[in-house]
Amino acid sequence: MQQFRAAIYVTLKPVVNDPQGLAIADGLRHLGYGSVASVRAGKYIVVTLTAHTSQEAEQLVGQMCARLLANPVIEDYRFEVSLQQ
Amino acid sequence: MQQFRAAIYVTLKPVVNDPQGLAIADGLRHLGYGSVASVRAGKYIVVTLTAHTSQEAEQLVGQMCARLLANPVIEDYRFEVSLQQ
Description:
2 copies of one chain form a homodimer.
Chain A: E1 2-12, H1 19-30, E2 36-51, H2 54-69, E3 75-83
Antiparallel strand pairs in A: 1-2, 1-3
């Protein structure tokens, strides 16, 4: 068994309203950053797991995203799996 | 002026307790993913901004992270700035 590190990015779909991102954009503009055009806020989740192969790890992480980490109705996700040293 | 896209990753420092990550790890194990060793939860923020050069955009984003997006006492951040097509 080897240990893998999965970096998972969960983002709201582009058509979904993002109040957190709007609030961050407002905050940045109030601090003087008028050049900010837009902000989208998402989640960055790092999962460390054991698996026999990187294919198995990728399959497990894909299932975790679809079942728990992302809401497929309003969110997209992508991930990268790497062997941990 | 050109438009740039900054992908910002904000993570808790390794020594800081991460209740959200612990809750996600518990949830995954209850779903049957016993191979999960640990989970760390962070933020993924995409800022679109205008600047004259990529150096200027990187400098602005660095300031935004230090002043608003990350809490330097408990969080680390890193970011990648790319020219938007």
